[in-house]
Amino acid sequence: MKRVVIASGNPGKLGELTSLLEPLGIDPLPQSIFNVPEVEEPFLTFLENALAKARNASERTGLPAIADDSGLCCASLDGRPGVESAYFAGKEGAHAERDRRNNALLVESLRDAKDRSAFYYCVLVLVHSADDPVPVIADGTWHGEITLQPRGTRGFGYDPHFLLPWRGLTAGELYAEEKNRVSHRARAIVALEAKLSALQAHADG
Length: 205
What we know:
Blueprint: E1 2-6, H1 11-21, E2 26-30, H2 46-61, E3 65-74, H3 95-110, E4 117-127, E5 136-146, E6 162-164, E7 169-170, H4 176-182, H5 184-204
Parallel strand pairs: 1-2, 1-3
Antiparallel strand pairs: 3-4, 4-5, 5-6, 6-7
Helix pairs in contact: 4-5
């Protein structure tokens, strides 16, 4: 199994990525065990932020690294919180505290909105070294709408407010097994697996 560092300190994201990467024959290692600090994410796109995180983790560990940059994009908020999803209501506090503030601000921002459609977006960047000139990039989206009343205690982030109309449940009400089949992160993993398989087939050919 190939060792790859996950460039994230978010416990919810680490759990999901670990579950999704292991079936691909990847041994995912959290960057925290190497004392890798989280890097700044100053860019305007998910892709640029993910690339910065992956390169930072690979440079500090000497191992391949994978980074996930993801967030919630709301139609009535011109795509916000977007790349600022993790810090929509500020950077103070631990992850759980920030989640509570972020959700409160999301609800307040959409309280009078007629259109509460939204989607989660995830981009994955895998670098084989810190200066890899050809990183493997894959992404996925997950469409739904925002409900003002939270439902469910599973998942993390905005999941209790992310309603799936076709399912009648929020992401916070889904069991991990189902979420890991249908989420934006799951779809990005499927795309990543396809790219890695194509690269391996080309190398073998």
